[in-house]
Amino acid sequence: MYSRYLMSQAKHNSYFLVGLALGLWVALVVVPLEEQPACAPPPPADDGFEPVRVERPAAAAAAAAAGRTVQRPRYYSTELGMRAPLLGAVLSAEAALGSRAAALNHTAAALQPALRFFLTASARGGGAGGAGAPSNVVGFTDTREVLKPFHTLKYLADNFLEEYNYFFLSTDAAFINAPRLQQLVSRLSVSQDVYMGVPAEEDSHYCSLESGVLLSRSVLAAVQGALDWCVRNAYSARHHENVGRCVLHAANVPCTTTLQGESYSAVRLSGELSSELSSELAAELAGAVTAGPVAAAPDYYQLHALVSRVHLEHISSESATLARGVRRLRSKQPPPARAAWPPGLRADPALPPPPPTTRFDHPRWTLLNASHAIFSDDHAAAAPHRGHHKKALEMVLEAARAWLQASDTPAEGAPTSAEGPPTGAEGRPTGALRLVEGARLWLPAQGLYYKLLVHTGERLRLLEVVRPLGSARLVPAPYVTESARVAAVLPAGPGAAAWLAKYRVVAERDRNTELIVALIHMRGVPNELESVRAAALALPSHAGVRVIDVDEPISAQHAAAGPISAQDRIERARAAAMKAASTMVTKDTLLLLATEDMEFNEDFLNRVRMNTLPGLQWYSPVGFARYSQYALELRRAGRRPSVNTGRFMTARSDVLAVYRRDLDRAIMLSGDNSTASIPQLLARSLRCLRAPEPALIHAPPPPPCAPPALAAQLAPPAQPAACLRELERRGFSDLNLGAKHSLAKLLLETEAGVV
């Protein structure tokens, strides 16, 4: 019975059993067994390759790492994604530019400069230049009124989407309460989509544009991607319906009046404004974002005055409450201390002075004595009193002497002189004042503070003197631009061909420059300047190269003065080249006197344009001079400015920039003085700005007591001993051998090799 059942099941499942058997057989045939070595893959053929480990030198690795530069943004706010809080956009028209738009621009000045007025292009050309018209006007070429809101949204998204977090859209018929709007924006989080305003109608998902619409950056970004759909479906005559339909379709966000615990309100004005000025309206206006519609321009100023009065009353009330609370604390303080108001001044003896905001705001006291100031700047340990500091110290000492004479009475029984003031035991007049030491502090907002230890007769007195500002005034800020044309003047010698090759690279990037090559013919020096002339004329036409010949200036005054040093002859030749080149350019051209050993780029030219002020200031940059130990091109580390490869040479002032008009006036004031250098001429009529310039790099100087080639041809070099004595007399100020630790290491290595 059981066998018959098995046979019936096998008969019904015969195909399955046959397939299972075949599958197992194929699997056993195809899959190799681990025990069979014949199934193992054959060994690879020997192709003679052997892996070799390449050792990378440390210097090459450092150079490769230095070559991988990271392009960072210009401002840290861009790199961190920081944005301004709010940008306002107002839809206006030509008829309202001189009236409502101008009044709104004045009353909403707290939003400036983030406030824009949008209208058609024809309206901008006809009314933007009228009296009282705002200057921050944007015009559109499309004159269809129904599309103006979408042109505005597209302009905001294309130009300001990455710069602001919120965008406020309104019409010029609404008064904007700027402080309340800024307060509302400061309390909202940018992590949530915001479409905020007053609904146009009950149960409406659209915000009224007449009452203002606040959009977040995320909502505006969504609208930017759906502008085509919004324009095709702009079939309503009312702007708020078209904008609301667009926002609802793009961001799926309806209009709301409350969000994140904050509420948006607007005041609806009706009738004459003067009849509604009441205390209830004032309180309502102070808490509202907008109010409207406003028909006339004077109404904006009236509403602004009303809102400002409410805000001032609120601030005065808070200040009075806080002052009363501070005064109540007087009974809980120690007897010497008394609470002052306002507490921000912290002028009480028991309270410490307020700490500075940053380390740059920390006041710097400068020690001084009767003749010198100690560490008055970062360049000298001690410097004598000069100019206004010397005059101020004399005035302070004179005032201190007068105060001491008025406050002190001579001691009873002190010896007196019949012909002079009372004298002390040593015969010194009691009215005499001698400064022992002291310190001064300069606070720009207050004046000069002095702490003086003075000797009066037989006593030492410690005085604190304050010299307040006598006449505070605003310093005018002149207009400068990076579009000024720069004419570089190169007094060329035999080695100027290499400089011309570097200038060609800069001229390719900055096309607003020209070059005047002045070939200087010195007396007693062979003429080897034809190669320089050919190299200058071979430069492309856009470099604006011109070549002039300048002879060394010699006059009867020079001959009567006796022999002239080689350096003085070179300086006079450079001045003659500058004067000759100035006649070939226009009066508004910026002249840059260059040297053959300088390297620069377009950033240096832009700073020259920004730091040279016509009629006020000439610019003398302090270039970065490489050390002599980096004279070889194989030392690639010396090509980049760093603390180990060079320093800023304050003793050099051969590179300067000045406008041609200022140079002509300086030459006219000096008269027929051909012996003066260019800095001496300019110092009589203009002020000089000196500042470190990392983009200006000077080549490594020659060894000490080895003058340049041109100077060696003009005069025989001095003996090494005399030259070294002259360098020591000048304090080795122009010696630029290398960093101190590098020179010390070289000295130790040399001494070790000698021993």
- Walk across the major sheet and give the strand order: 3-2-1-4-7-6
What is the percent of helical residues? Answer: 25-40%
Q: How far from one another are the termini?
A: 117 Å
- Number of helix segments? 24
Q: Quick one: biggest sheet?
A: 6 strands, mixed
**Beta-sheet strand percentage?**
15-25%
Based on helices, strands and strand pairing, what is the structural class? alpha/beta
| CATH C-level class of the largest domain | Alpha Beta
CATH topology of the largest domain: Spore Coat Polysaccharide Biosynthesis Protein SpsA, Chain A
Architecture of the largest domain in CATH?
Alpha-Beta Complex
User: Could you tell me the radius of gyration in angstroms?
Assistant: 41 Å
DSSP E strands, number: 28
Descriptive account of the structure:
By secondary structure, the chain is an alpha/beta fold. The protein is built from 24 helices and 28 strands. It has a 6-stranded mixed beta sheet. It has a 6-stranded antiparallel beta sheet with strand order 14-13-12-15-16-17, covered by helices on one side. The chain is extended. The model is unreliable at 34-40, 123-133, 411-430 and 632-638 (pLDDT under 50).
Considering the chains and any ligands shown, give keywords for the structure.
single chain; 755 residues; Spore Coat Polysaccharide Biosynthesis Protein SpsA, Chain A; 3 domains; 6-stranded mixed β-sheet; 6-stranded antiparallel β-sheet; 24 helices; extended
Secondary structure: elements and pairs:
Layout: H1 2-12, H2 14-30, H3 58-67, H4 76-80, E1 84-91, H5 100-107, E2 115-120, H6 121-127, E3 137-140, H7 148-160, E4 164-171, E5 175-176, H8 178-186, E6 195-197, E7 213-216, H9 217-225, H10 227-232, H11 239-251, E8 258-259, E9 262-263, E10 266-268, H12 279-287, E11 290-292, H13 297-328, E12 365-368, E13 372-374, E14 382-384, H14 387-407, E15 434-443, E16 447-456, E17 459-468, E18 486-492, H15 497-509, E19 513-521, H16 530-537, E20 545-551, H17 556-561, H18 566-582, E21 590-593, E22 598-599, H19 602-611, E23 617-619, E24 622-626, E25 646-648, E26 656-659, H20 660-670, H21 678-682, E27 687-689, E28 692-698, H22 709-714, H23 720-729, H24 740-754
Parallel strand pairs: 1-2, 1-4, 2-3, 10-11, 18-19, 18-21, 19-20, 23-27, 24-28
Antiparallel strand pairs: 4-7, 5-11, 6-7, 8-9, 12-13, 12-15, 13-14, 15-16, 16-17, 21-26, 22-28, 24-25
Helix pairs in contact: 5-13, 7-9, 9-11, 12-13
